[in-house]
Specification:
Length: 330
Amino acid sequence: METRMNTRRTVLQAFALTALLTTAATVPAADWPTERPIRMIVPTPPGGGTDIFSRVIANHLGKALGQTIVVENKGGANGLIGQTTAAKASGDGYTILFTYAAAIAVNPAMQPAMPYDTLKELKPVAQIGASGNYLVVASDVPAQDLKSFIDWVKKQPDPVNYGSWGIGSGGHLTMEAVKMQTGIKLNHVPYRGSGPLVTDLSAGTVKVAFADTVSTLPYIKSGKFKALAISGTMRAPVTPNVPTLSEQGVPFKLDSWYGIFAPAGTPDAIVKRLNAEITKLVGLPEIKERFLQMNMAESPSKTPEEFGATVRRDMQAWGEIVRTNNIKPE
């Protein structure tokens, strides 16, 4: 009898402990985000496109949550410094990361020793936007589309130089993917950012580049550059006449995007709430106008799980390009 009572007491205590732990585990999600401001880590210096857009998102997201969101810039090492800070932070809902596709998906393949495990230590929350990069040439290059560009390159006695905004950048890896599929020979000339690249392209120092869809636009509109193709899965809103690589016979289905992540321990309830609020705010007129200014298609609506699948797919695809071409960091 005593044994049965002791057993029953033990079972009841176990149930009580389980209930207590379950309650404790849900308290942060239930009270969040009333305790203190939320820190949004941005892995770039202040003033750039990623930083500016992050502050627009932070302002609207903070209003939706009824809590202040403080942007904290931690630039350097192609996003690794800021992303490491976020990955190692407490998963209490008060730290989130606003970052970009290349920093998340390319770094694991480029870096010999990652300071964190992307898939295990960062939790995908929401994708924001989707776009590509332009294949642009100087106006005197006798090409009007991808096919004529490939034909022109193949006729040159020496490999043609092309520029990108750095080793391992989206522009660099996209052109290497084009080379893999078409057999054309080009030499990569890396620049330290889009500004110097566009300056040299406009001066004729290089005739070919994969460059971003914002800084090149004035030159495309003036006729100084010709945009022959855009990477990614869709055409840019400002240049609907420029077809994608895939539409021109070179399959390429990787988009550039911004994304919000959280430390791995962040409760699912918080992640889902953030995703729901972000999904609503990207439909706001101001945000849509910002997408247009950035020549970026409107943001796709994805659950955290769907965004996570995008991250895994992109890491695999970009990694294959890096490994196949033996691309090393500077």
